[in-house]
Amino acid sequence: MKRISIIAAICLFALATHAQKRGNKITITPKAIGTETKVATEVSIKSGWRSARVTTPDGQPVPCQLDDLNGDGSPDVVFFFGEAGKRHVITLSKDLPQETYEPQVYAELMLTNKKIKEENKQDLYISQLTVDNGTNPYWMLHHHGAAFENEQVAYRIYFDHRQTVDIYGKYRKGLELRQTQFYPDAEQKANGFGDDVLWVGQTLGLGTLRGWDGSKPLMLTDVEHRSQRIVARGPLRTIVEVKDEGWTVVPRSGNDTPNTQHPSPNTSTPITMTALYTLNAGDRHCTVDIRFEGDADSREFVTGLINVKNSTEHSDGKGLRACWGTDWPVSAKDSVGHKRETVGLGIYIPEEYVVSQQPANKDNYPIVVRPRHNHLRYFITFYSANESWGFKSDDEWYRYLEEWKKTVR
Fold it and tell me: Does 2.70.98 match the CATH number of domain 105-408?
C-alpha cells in the first residue's frame, strides 16, 4: 500500500509540548501525531496584528498565513506546517506587511458575467454573498457556489437549498481552478486539465448535511438568510464558510413532508447552522466543522454519499463509509464532450455523532447523525480514476480509507 500522508489539524493547546508568549513573540513546539513529521498548527492570537513570521531555531523561515475566522476584519489565528518536536518562533507585527509565499491552495466565489460567453474566463470575483429567504442565486453564481482546491483535489458547494458538495478530478497535480474555473474548454482538456467527475443531482453528493425526518433527507428550503464566505484563501489552507440563519428544518411549505411517525424533536423551531469546509495543502480530505445556534442536540440530521451507479460499498459500521463506481458526471442532455468517470468516495464521522447507518437506496448511502453540544465534525475525501498517482481498484481505495480513518481520528 502507498504511504499515506495526512496532516492533522490541531489547536495550540492540544499540540504544544512547550508554548510561551512574550510580547509579540510566541514560542511553540508542535507535537508529533502518529508517524507524521509535519503538523498543521493553528495558534490563536489577539486582534490588531497585521503580519506574522514563523522561524525555526536556526532562523529558517516557515511559510505561514494569518486567518480571520470570525470575520471581524482582524486576523485571529496563525496557521503553518510545523516540524514535530522542534521549537518554532512566531513573531507578530502591527506595522510590517505579511510576507507572501508560493500558493499551495486556491479558492474562488464568482458572479456570472453575462457579457462573457466563455465559462473559463469569468471575472466577477467576490468574497462573500448573503441572500434572503426565497432568493436563489444558483444561476447567478459561476460554478453555482464557492470552489476550492489544493494540488490533488478540488471541491465546490452549491449555493441553493441543496448545498451539495461536488468534486473536480485531476489528471496531474497542480492548481487549476483559476484557469479552468471548474469548466475546462476543449483545448484545456486536450492539454490534461481536470474536470467535473460526479453528477450529484438531488443526492447527498459527498458528505452534504441535510435535515432528517425519520425516513428521508430534508433540503434546506426554509432559511431566512443563506451565506457563503471565503474565510481563508491560502497559501497553505483554504476555508469556506456556509451559513444558514433561521433554518426551519421541517419546512412551513414545499414538497418536503415530515415523517409524523418518527419525527425529529423540535424541528419546527428555527436554528442557525455555520459550516466551515477546510482544505489543507497536501491533504486529499476536507474537514467539515459545523456549529449550531439553537437547540440542535435534540435533532437528527443526515449526511453520507451519493450511490454512484453500479458502485461497490465499504463500511466498518463505526462511522466510515465509502463507495466506488462509474457514471456520467453530468445529466444525459449535457453528456456530449464528457466520458463516464470512475470515482472513489469516502466519509468518516466520529462515532459520538452517529445515530444510525441507513441501508443504501437508489440515491444515497445515508448516515443519520446528531450534534453534541451544538457541534458536529466529520471528514470527506475522494479519488478520481483520472489521477496519475492514485488508486487502481476499490479494494485499494478501501484499504487506504481504513488507514486514513486512524489518522484523522
Answer: yes
